[in-house]
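input
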Amino acid sequence: MSPPLRPKWHQDELWKGLVEDDLQVVSTDHCPFCMNEGFAGLPVQKGLGKDDFSKIPNGAPGVETRLMLLYDGGVRTGKITINRWVQLVSTAPAKLMGLYPRKGTIAEGSDADIVIWDPERETTITAESMHMRVDYNPYEGRKVKGSPAMVLLRGSVVVDDGKFTGKAGQGRFVRRSGHSIQ
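output
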């Protein structure tokens, strides 16, 4: 993945950047390339580099675990406040992408895209338990505390207790305006 994993001491500097607002968002490139042929009817992808590493598709899956990992490693350990966490994963990205105030806030006229968070819920991250269409998870077996209890899309429940209850095609294209991280 790019950038590649770094030495442990880099972590302290990254947390410092998040606390001091030198870093305004935490994101993932989310590249769910499979390791094994035939998973969910998908072709083998990472194996393309078996004989030539330069042909390995770059990236790793991460979109579904990002909030849990940042909460567990940041809020729960006291590195960042819960308000800063919400800013990093919701408000700031919405502003950066020109979607605020339609997204990134709970306010009259906004879309009511809401995650109901259970700070005490313990989860063991496994490829099998996630909804990502990929046959491995880089955090396989890691236990985290704090995870979504419910997810609402425009006010309608689409995930309840870890189970997808929405419908394919419920998503909608949202035109963005200019960004404003301030």
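quick obs: Residues 82-96 form the longest helix (15 residues).
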